[in-house]
Specification:
Blueprint lengths: L11 H7 L3 H4 L13 H14 L1 E9 L5 E13 L2 E8 L1 H14 L1
Antiparallel strand pairs: 1-2, 2-3
Length: 106
């Protein structure tokens, strides 16, 4: 994302987590992905992130279908001048459940 929070790059895995195509993701801002009731809090966290350079923790995003999804989030400011790297990953319990299903079916 850029400093304003608009997506300027995305990989297929991030798009899959959100339930949209890469092209759709690139037309959004991070604010479009936040539930409306959490946007003010998220903007305050974003300002803190811009000042400190790092942010991590749990975040709730809206999938393409409008359903909330809890993810683990990590971001690093200015990996390239004016561009921030954000990483969304499934929560540990979600990843553990997927691993368990994989073991059970394998």
């Amino acid at each position: 994302s850029d400093r304003a929070g608009f997506c300027i790059g995305a990989n297929p895995t991030a798009a899959d987590l959100i339930g949209c195509s890469r092209a759709e993701l690139l037309r959004q801002s991070i604010w479009d992905m936040m539930p409306p009731q959490r946007r003010m809090e998220a903007r305050a966290m974003w300002r803190w992130f811009l000042d400190t350079g790092e942010l991590d923790g749990a975040v709730t995003i809206l999938t393409r279908s409008g359903q909330p999804r809890d993810l683990q989030y990590a971001a690093v400011a200015d990996v390239v001048r004016g561009a921030h790297l954000s990483v969304f990953v499934p929560h540990a319990f979600e990843a553990a459940a997927a691993a368990e299903l994989s073991r059970a079916s394998g």
